[in-house]
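Reopening this ticket.

The earlier resolution said the output was attached, but the attachment link was broken on my side. Pasting everything inline this time so it's all in one place.
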Amino acid sequence: MIRNMGRIDRAFRAGLGVVGIALGIWLKTWWGLFALIPLLTAAIGYCPLYVPFRISTIKKKQPGV
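Inline output:
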C-alpha cells in the first residue's frame, strides 16, 4: 500500500474519528463504531476509496524548491 493521504486529510479524519467515538459513547449507541473507519485510515495513511478515482492528497514536491 502506498500512502495516498496528506497530513491535513489524516488530521481531519483522526479528529472526526475521535469525535464519532466520543458521541457513540455519550449517546450509548453502536454507531460510534463507524468512527473507527476514518480513525484507522488516518492511522495508516491510506484510503482504499481514493484508488479507483486516482485521488491523492499528498502534496507533490516542486522541482527546484
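Reporter confirms the inline version is readable. Residues 7-50 form one domain. The mean pLDDT is 92.
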